[in-house]
Write a structure and sequence with these properties.
The structure holds three protein chains of three kinds. By secondary structure, chain B is mainly alpha-helical. Chain B is built from twelve helices and five strands. In chain B, helix 6 packs across helix 8 and helix 8 runs antiparallel to helix 9. In chain C, the strands form three sheets. Chain C has a two-stranded antiparallel sheet. In chain C, strand 4 and strand 5 form a beta hairpin. In chain C, about 55% of the residues are buried. The chains are: A alpha+beta, B mainly alpha, C alpha+beta.
Chain lengths: ~300, ~325, ~200
């Protein structure tokens, strides 16, 4: 659609007696001047637009349905002929419906985002008031973030590992880095794994720009040996590492372990070596973005 | 007009006015015209204050992190203009002075004529060190002068390909011969330091102008004041060109572009002055004085030459070794 | 005839290094030779600026002036090129260049300089246009095909502009007028000896 479509009527037509469909808002040129649900054959029949489907499309739709009593349930997302979408668009409507945007995500662990301290946080004073979600089974695995957070506070982890470590991208590299670090043009531009550290934190530790440092993580005695990039890019108390490197582990260069000819031009410590426990409450994705660490001159 | 219709007119007029005003284009808060180079003035001043603008880059080569080094402009002027004037004036000046002097004074003769008896002045090792250093110096001087003067003087004569071939070999020669030259300078320093410490005799010799004009023969030990000056020019100047030369030859091993420029300037200026002085040395050792060349050529000198120019040395030698150290020069005619 | 120039808009450069990678790839520039590079000043502080720097192809090029063997030449459109056959690797062009453009492979005696290499404005060298010999020594010749330098073509934010000096200046002036600020065309005055009038 020119200019885009409206919000998908993803969660049905009503909830708790309130309509989830758009009110007083519709696409220009729409024949339905109101909210409407996702398009199925049933919806098309109610509107009388099912007559606009071609015979071939109907044949495919019947095949997708399987049995005749299920035809009405074939929707825009399961119709392999694309006919439902075509007809909806023909009448100026969005195939996936015209619903309201919601601010309360009732099916997520926190329907409205609330502040929860990270599992490993330097602000231990806030953990009691803003703990992470309770331990629970997530998909097929236990997520014991709450227990890990509590233990970290009790053990005083934040004292031994006072710096926040965050990870992120470099423009020269991509993903795990094996391909882009094997490209000579790109590899020349980022030849060393590094950690960005604030000048104040570096001065406290006697770290000079470009010197080697040990970064230690809060779990499993994790350690990584990288170069220090002393810069104002990160605030005091925060450090940052790029995650594209690999081929070093715990300070040991593993280049000779690669099959001959496969080692990338540039090797370095993997940032995830020092990352810690944590799984996204909705997706179960691991938490290598942020944790706590300590840095000392090598 | 009724009150209501008057009111309507006013409302419509106001509405029209509001519409007229609101159709003015909304302008961002910017001056009427922006000078795209407004900060160019500060840029200029920045360049004058700092000799280098540099920042951070991800490349390991620190030289790549420089945005601009305005000092390059000053160095260019030095190399293209200043240095050529220095070189031209000193070398051509020295040649001119020597030519005029020779035409007027002629060769300094052994006044009492050759005695036919000789004495050893420089042994084989000393002569070897001198000639090794001297030969290297000549080649180093020519190859070095080529860098500054080759383009305007020689290139037009032999064309770019031949000139590059010659310059390339001159550069190799310059780089490799620097080692024997440096060793030679160091050895010269060692073997002749004893005889080159200035003393009162030198002051007297200098006061009498070394006897270069007229028939004066001021006393002198093995090395007179003039030779001592040559010695120190060689030792100090040679050290200076060697140190600056090695900085140039191992570029950016601990230096940055500013120190490389400084090294080049020092190397070039010292070298030009060195060359000018050596032209004088070569003059007096060859056409300038009878009986001088053989001192370094064969190692022996005529007794009368020694008496006239280095009498104190001659006495020392006689006292040390006795009168038998002199040798009769073999006569030219065979015995009958 | 158009007079070719570079202008890097320091207010737009995001230091993505696309220009560097494009140049490296197009001309197969060896490791250690940095024809083009991105430098950031005030890194991490307010007023941080990045600028992409390579040979500016100066009017009255200082490299040309100091070269002892006269291996540089300026083409009709103002591009400063040099002959690697005539170069003796003395390094003087680097001392004179305000932008540090000349690069040298470390292959000479005593680990010092081989033949000088630098940004060619994608205009090759003295060999025949588009020939294998030209590519081997100097890289691609895009100018002979009527194209502009690849670094500027690849710039993700169009901060690096290359082309006819008058056109480039016009674009920059319009840009600065529209957005209301400009750090100035860094290096322009040094390279071309003129200021950009408003």
């Amino acid at each position: 659609m020119d200019g885009g479509n409206g919000f998908r009527a993803r969660f049905g037509v009503e909830r708790n007696g309130q309509t989830l469909l758009a009110e007083r808002s519709y696409l220009p040129g729409s024949e339905i001047k109101d909210g409407y649900p996702e398009f199925t054959i049933g919806v098309l029949k109610k509107l009388g637009w099912d007559k606009d489907l071609t015979a071939e499309e109907l044949a495919v739709i019947e095949k997708v349905a399987g049995t005749p009593d299920k035809v009405d349930t074939v929707s825009w997302s399961t119709d392999l002929s694309g006919g439902i979408q075509r007809v909806a668009l023909k009448h100026g409507c969005s195939p996936y419906g015209n619903g309201k945007a919601r601010t309360v995500a009732w099916n997520l662990p926190d329907p409205i985002p609330v502040h929860r301290e990270p599992i490993y946080t330097p602000r231990v004073d806030l953990v009691t008031k803003y703990p992470t979600l309770p331990d629970a089974k997530q998909f097929r695995l236990p997520n014991i973030g709450f227990t890990v957070q509590k233990t970290a506070v009790e053990r005083g982890i934040a004292k031994a590992f006072p710096l926040i470590v965050s990870s992120g991208r470099l423009v020269e590299y991509e993903g795990g880095g094996e391909e882009t670090r094997s490209n000579v043009w790109l590899a020349e531009l980022q030849q060393d794994m590094f950690i960005e550290i604030n000048p104040a934190d570096a001065a406290e530790r006697g770290i000079k720009d470009g010197s080697l440092v040990w970064v230690t993580g809060a779990e499993n005695s994790a350690k990584a040996k990288v170069k220090a990039l002393v810069t104002e890019r990160v605030g005091k108390g925060v450090t940052w590492m790029p995650f594209h490197f690999g081929g070093w582990f715990g300070g040991v260069d593993l280049r000779d372990k690669y099959p001959k000819g496969t080692d990338p031009v540039v090797l370095g410590e993997s940032a995830n070596t020092i990352m810690t426990y944590g799984y996204d409450p909705a997706t179960g994705m691991q938490e290598p973005k942020v944790s706590l660490c300590q840095v000392r001159a090598a | 007009m009724t009150l209501i219709s008057k009111f309507r007119v006013i409302v419509v007029a106001l509405a029209l006015l509001v519409m007229a005003l609101s159709t003015q284009p909304v302008r961002a808060q910017q001056p009427a015209s922006v000078n795209p180079q407004a900060s160019a003035v500060t840029e200029d001043r920045l360049f004058q204050e700092l000799n280098r603008i540099s920042g951070r880059c991800t490349l390991p080569d620190q030289k790549a992190c420089t945005i601009e080094q305005p000092a390059g402009r000053d160095w260019r002027y030095f190399h293209q203009v200043t240095l050529r004037w220095i070189g031209g004036l000193t070398i051509i000046g020295m040649l001119a002075v020597l030519i005029v002097f020779y035409l007027w004074r002629g060769m300094v003769r052994i006044e009492s004529g050759r005695s036919g008896r000789t004495i050893v002045r420089f042994n084989a090792f000393e002569r070897f060190v001198h000639w090794m250093t001297a030969t290297c110096f000549i080649i180093l001087a020519l190859s070095g002068l080529n860098i500054t003067f080759g383009k305007p003087l020689l290139l037009p004569l032999i064309g770019p390909n031949s000139f590059t071939a010659w310059s390339q070999w001159a550069k190799y020669a310059h780089n490799y011969l620097s080692f024997p030259f440096t060793i030679g300078v160091f050895l010269i320093f060692l073997i002749w330091i004893a005889g080159n410490i200035p003393n009162r005799v030198d002051i007297e010799w200098l006061k009498r102008g070394g006897g270069i004009v007229g028939h004066d023969h001021p006393p002198a030990y093995r090395f007179n004041a003039g030779q001592k000056m040559i010695y120190w020019v060689v030792v100090l100047g040679g050290t200076a060109v060697a140190v600056s030369g090695y900085v140039l030859m191992f570029p950016f091993y601990g230096t940055n572009v500013a120190s490389m420029q400084a090294a080049q300037m020092a190397h070039a200026i010292v070298a030009l002055l060195f060359i000018a002085v050596m032209i004088g040395h070569i003059y007096i050792g060859t056409v300038g004085m009878e009986g001088a060349f053989e001192a370094m050529g064969t190692g022996t000198v005529d007794l009368n030459w020694a008496k006239e120019h280095h009498n104190l040395w001659l006495e020392e030698e006689k006292a040390r070794t006795g009168p038998n150290k002199t040798r009769r020069q073999p006569s030219a005619t065979p015995a009958e | 005839m158009a007079r070719m120039k570079f202008l890097c808009d320091a207010d737009r450069c995001i230091e993505c290094n696309a220009c560097v990678t494009a140049c490296k790839n197009e001309h197969e520039v060896p490791w250690g030779i940095n024809r083009r590079r991105v430098v950031t000043i005030n890194d991490g502080k307010p007023g941080e600026r990045s600028i992409s720097m390579a040979c500016m192809h100066c009017t009255d090029a200082p490299c040309q002036a100091v070269c002892p063997v006269n291996c540089f030449y300026t083409t009709a459109d103002g591009v400063v090129l040099h002959s690697k056959d005539l170069c003796i690797g003395c390094g003087y062009c680097f001392y004179a260049c305000p932008f540090g453009a000349p690069q040298y492979p470390r292959v000479g005696n005593f680990g010092s300089r081989g033949k000088m290499d630098k940004c060619t404005y994608c205009a090759g060298g003295p060999e025949a246009d588009g020939s294998k010999a030209e590519y081997a020594k100097y890289g691609a010749n895009r100018l002979a095909e009527g194209k502009l330098p690849l670094c500027a073509e690849m710039c993700s934010t169009k901060s690096l502009l290359a082309g006819d000096g008058d056109v480039v200046v016009q674009i920059y002036k319009e840009r600065v007028a529209k957005r209301g600020y400009g750090s100035g065309a860094w290096g322009w005055k040094t390279a071309y000896g003129e200021a950009i009038e408003s």
